[in-house]
Design goal:
35% of the residues lie in helices and 19% in strands. It is of the alpha/beta class. It has one domain: SPOUT methyltransferase, trefoil knot domain (Alpha/beta knot).
């Protein structure tokens, strides 16, 4: 089970893109924290910038707004989730080096603000900080693109590390 935590994302288009990608990857729920805009405004109307990019995913992927990412992370940890933050840090590991202990591991994947990233206080709460290696002159990717790369790599890692072994034939 994978859930996403969007922490202080500013762009409605990025939120919409993450909803669409989350749907494609089978993410079970999206938590919107801090200043991250929700698909619906306070009057219940869908925000056109999100719906334009999400293409309907915002209407059927469960989502929840939580003002405090800190409280949410504490709650998810109590529920058995491993918390993985996508961020460049001295403590980060390349995303493709991540080890997942079992196929049923509950994972919460955090992405942060387009400019400031994930705050140091949230990074301290993460079980792992994972990054996408950069080979060009730019040092980062768009947050929605980074989310897409990592969420699909997580699915690949889970599948690869936890392939079911064939049952032995009994004679």
């Amino acid at each position: 089970m994978i859930v996403a935590i969007l922490y202080n994302i500013r762009s409605l288009y990025n939120v919409g893109s993450i909803f669409r990608t989350a749907d494609a990857a089978g993410v079970e729920k999206i938590y919107l924290c801090g200043i991250t805009p929700t698909p619906q405004d306070k009057y219940g109307f869908y925000r056109s910038q999100i719906t334009k990019v999400a293409l309907g995913a915002e209407k059927y992927i469960p989502w929840e707004y939580q003002k405090s990412a800190t409280h949410l992370i504490k709650k998810l940890k109590k529920e058995g989730f491993k918390i993985y933050a996508i961020e460049q840090s001295k403590k980060s590991i390349p995303y493709d080096k991540l080890k997942i202990k079992n196929r049923q591991q509950k994972i919460a994947l955090i992405v942060g603000n387009e400019v400031k990233g994930v705050s140091p206080s949230i990074l301290k709460m993460a079980d792992k900080i994972i990054e996408i290696p950069m080979y060009g002159k730019k040092e980062s990717l768009n947050v929605a693109v980074a989310f897409g790369i990592v969420v699909f790599e997580l699915l690949k890692i889970i599948k690869k590390q936890h392939r079911q072994k064939p049952k032995k034939k009994i004679k």
